[in-house]
Design brief:
heterodimer, A: alpha/beta, six-stranded parallel beta sheet, 23 helices, B: 194 residues, four-stranded mixed beta sheet, 24% strand
């Protein structure tokens, strides 16, 4: 039903298109600024925020560094609590497990709590191929699904849509898949939310199988945690007979008390609230209350690949709060779709290459989708040093091209530079050439930099992309060594 | 090889050179907030929930007043006479959907965040009864209120299903404009006793 990210263009191409969409930029600027201000206000309320961050980072880092032990403990406690545990190496395996659970109950539909892991594995499309409809029940996900659109933000997937667009989607599509939108639907947020409530309630009341993710999985107690606002999570986790939770293996924390810093950090960082309206925790099956058949799918899908990267490993601490998206100057202008993944923004720019490798052009473009300003690290509640990982992933992209039969222009230029700089005569010759170029540009240049220095315009050939967005200062007419020879290091008084 | 063994093998291989010993810095405690009940009331109201304070003797009257004749469901061991209420004995979701209100007790109140936590003991009932009806009247005793999240974590039993509630159901998915009342109860009325 909804679109997929497969075949998305590389970031620069997608970003250029997004930058041309003024409506999108207006929607994004409004949303990111609103949520940024809210977050700053509630974070300022906490006196020891930095200590809380250190504690949150420590909880996740400790869990990751001994992950195999914690996963075995988690499995044992889940089984003891009455859950069935499955392991999935990749997306295909995880989707097949969910489909087989749904089929074993003869279900032709499931209700879903918003979950990044199930989006990542393309669960809705996989279930659809099996003849099982997957209904998204988070309001934003419903908007994305009905609009046959793609999510563009981790927390508010329909952030790129305004109220008028949402009303139009509800009017056009709701009737096709269930209860129609009322004829007098306005674009008031409360009225739109009311229409979603009516539309989804009939699905909640009849659904027999639900699918969720988990924000945290506590190893020693086998407890899963889902954090949400609307109550759709509670509906899915409580009313159906069968619950399947798809949980990334990095979601594990060691002990029940480890939830303390996490539940203080997450709501303030993500929605800018002291606490989100609803948090549900459950350990396996509770007789007489909630689903009586509970499955947990522990998902790898590239996480062990990321875990093996000693710089990038810290990205697995991510608790999907999306604070880094809301402060990112790049995200704010291009939006989430340009990143071509369910994980957009700064965290997506490192998580996607870490999970999938940099062998395809689209993923390899992501570490460059950043100005390295560092705002993402400052807001990250678990202190992921995103700028350092971005730089490291850029190195990984360069390394991946070392064996190319046709080297990249950049590699050719660097090799030529190395050849030139390694010999003083060659360097002198190159300086003369650049001095000549500087004099020519100085005479004909129509642009100048602050301070009056002439700038080269757009250069031809491989440098065109670089100079298309930057002013290249004209090389100085006289090199340092020529100046030194002429003035004997300034002692002849000829310096200027 | 099974998926389980393969994934655990990959995890061990990825961490072969990593020492597991990381000391986790203790989470900071919150400063003394003084009157917890007063802070609790302020923070719960900040979430646009309604709060009424009363004594144990006034409780039955307050709850009846809040319900104002609406149909209601109560858990089997509420410990309070609510006239006309249906006692939940496993009502279906469709039956619950026809009930206007629910009255429950709670396990913990958290002052700092304005949160109530239900552990679904017999005085609070199954998770479904405090979810489907549109009005949730939740009775919290003043001595159940703790300062912040770590105090709540310390008293809660992870083996029980838990529901943490901070205000009524809400969404900010449309232009980040907060709207109360999506799928859960649209009105949360907290009665603080004592």
């Amino acid at each position: 039903m909804s679109g997929t990210f497969v075949g998305m263009p590389a970031f620069p191409t997608a970003a250029r298109e997004a930058l041309g969409d003024t409506q999108l930029r207006r929607n994004l600027a409004h949303a990111t600024h609103t949520i940024r201000d809210k977050r700053a206000r509630v974070v300022a309320e906490v006196e020891d925020w930095e200590d809380l961050r250190l504690s949150g980072a420590g909880v996740k880092e400790a869990a990751l560094r001994d992950l195999a032990t914690h996963l075995e403990t988690l499995e044992a406690s889940l089984v003891r609590a009455g859950a069935t545990v499955h392991w999935a190496r990749d997306a295909e395996e995880a989707c097949a497990i969910v489909a087989s659970v749904a089929r074993s109950h003869g279900a032709d539909e499931v209700v879903k709590v918003k979950s990044m892991a199930t989006q990542e594995i393309g669960l809705n499309e996989a279930l659809e191929a099996e003849g099982i409809a997957a209904w998204e029940t988070d309001l934003a996900e419903l908007i994305v699904q009905l609009g046959e659109d793609l999510p563009s933000h981790i927390l508010v997937p329909a952030i790129h849509r305004n109220r008028a667009e949402i009303r139009e989607i509800f009017m056009r599509r709701m009737a096709d898949v269930g209860r129609a939108a009322p004829d007098d639907l306005t674009d008031e947020p409360a009225v739109l939310a009311g229409a979603a409530r009516e539309h989804l309630r009939e699905k909640f009341l009849r659904a027999r199988v639900a699918v969720s993710g988990a924000n945290f999985a506590v190893a020693d107690t086998g407890t899963l945690v889902v954090v949400e606002s609307e109550g759709n999570g509670r509906m899915c986790l409580t009313l159906p007979d069968v619950l399947v939770s798809v949980v990334g293996i990095e979601k594990v924390v060691a002990t029940w008390s480890d939830l303390d810093p996490m539940l203080r950090l997450l709501p303030r960082s993500s929605t800018g609230e002291r606490m989100n309206p609803y948090t549900s925790t459950w350990s396996g099956v509770t007789p007489g209350d909630g689903p009586q058949e509970v499955h947990v799918v522990l998902l790898d899908n590239g996480r062990t690949r990321a875990l093996a990267d000693d710089v990038g490993r810290q990205a697995l601490r991510c608790i999907r709060c999306s604070a880094c998206l809301n402060v990112c100057p790049v995200y704010e202008r291009v939006g989430g779709h340009a990143y071509g993944s369910v994980y957009p923004g700064p965290i997506g720019a490192i998580l996607n290459p870490l999970l999938r490798g940099v062998s395809d052009e689209q993923t390899a473009s992501l570490p460059y989708a950043s100005s390295l300003c560092g705002a993402c690290f400052e807001v990250c509640p678990v202190r992921i040093d995103i700028p350092s990982v971005l730089v490291d992933q850029r190195a990984a992209v360069v390394d991946s091209h070392r064996g190319d039969r046709v080297p990249k222009a950049e590699a050719v230029a660097m090799r030529a530079a190395a050849w030139t700089f390694s010999d003083s005569r060659r360097l002198r010759w190159a300086e003369r050439a650049s001095g000549l170029a500087g004099r020519v540009i100085g005479r004909f240049s129509r642009t100048s930099l602050p301070g009056g220095r002439p700038a080269a315009g757009r250069l031809p050939g491989p440098a065109a992309c670089w100079t298309g967005a930057r002013d290249l200062p004209a090389p100085p007419a006289e090199s340092f060594r020529e100046w030194w020879d002429r003035t004997d290091g300034g002692r002849d008084g000829g310096g200027s | 090889m099974s998926a389980r063994d393969e994934i655990l093998g990959r995890v061990r291989a990825a961490l072969a050179d990593v020492s597991p010993a990381v000391s986790v810095p203790a989470a900071p405690r919150v400063p003394d907030r003084g009157d917890l009940a007063a802070l609790f009331v302020e923070r719960v109201e900040d979430y646009r929930a309604v709060v009424t304070r009363c004594t144990a003797d006034e409780l039955a009257g307050v709850v009846a007043g809040v319900l104002g004749g609406a149909s209601s469901v109560v858990p089997p061991a509420l410990g309070l006479d609510v006239p006309g209420a249906v006692v939940d004995d496993g009502l279906t979701s469709a039956e619950l959907d026809r009930v206007d209100a629910v009255v429950t007790r709670a396990r913990v109140g958290i002052a700092e965040t304005g949160t109530i936590v239900l552990d679904h003991a017999p005085d609070q009932g199954r998770r479904a009864i405090s979810l489907v009806p549109d009005l949730h009247v939740c009775i919290v005793a003043a001595d159940q209120v703790v300062a912040d999240v770590p105090d709540a974590i310390a008293v809660l039993d992870p083996a029980r299903p838990l529901t943490w509630i901070s205000g009524p159901s809400a969404t900010s998915d449309i232009e980040l404009d907060r709207v109360e009342g999506v799928h859960g109860p649209r009105t949360l009325h907290v009665v603080l006793v004592g």
